[in-house]
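Reopening this ticket.

The earlier resolution said the output was attached, but the attachment link was broken on my side. Pasting everything inline this time so it's all in one place.
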Amino acid sequence: MHERGEGVETNADLDDLIDVGLFTERPGDGAFAQENVLLMQRQPARSGKQEIRVITTERPSFAGIDPYNKYVDRNSDDNIVAVE
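Inline output:
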């Protein structure tokens, strides 16, 4: 979202390469270390719903898009989710 100068937010279009990560532990919690990163690679991301598929040899516990919050985001807590 972005503001148009009058305090009204509107959705901003997205079409960029953004970090996608898979983790054995939630990033930012406690003793998180490099060995907790199963995959970190930039993937094309665009506005709207999309599906990103990656294959790893170990099942992740968490997955995220922009997991280290490099982009400005009002709700960065929703960038990482537990893998079901």
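Reporter confirms the inline version is readable. The longest strand covers residues 37-46. The two ends are 29 Å apart (CA to CA).
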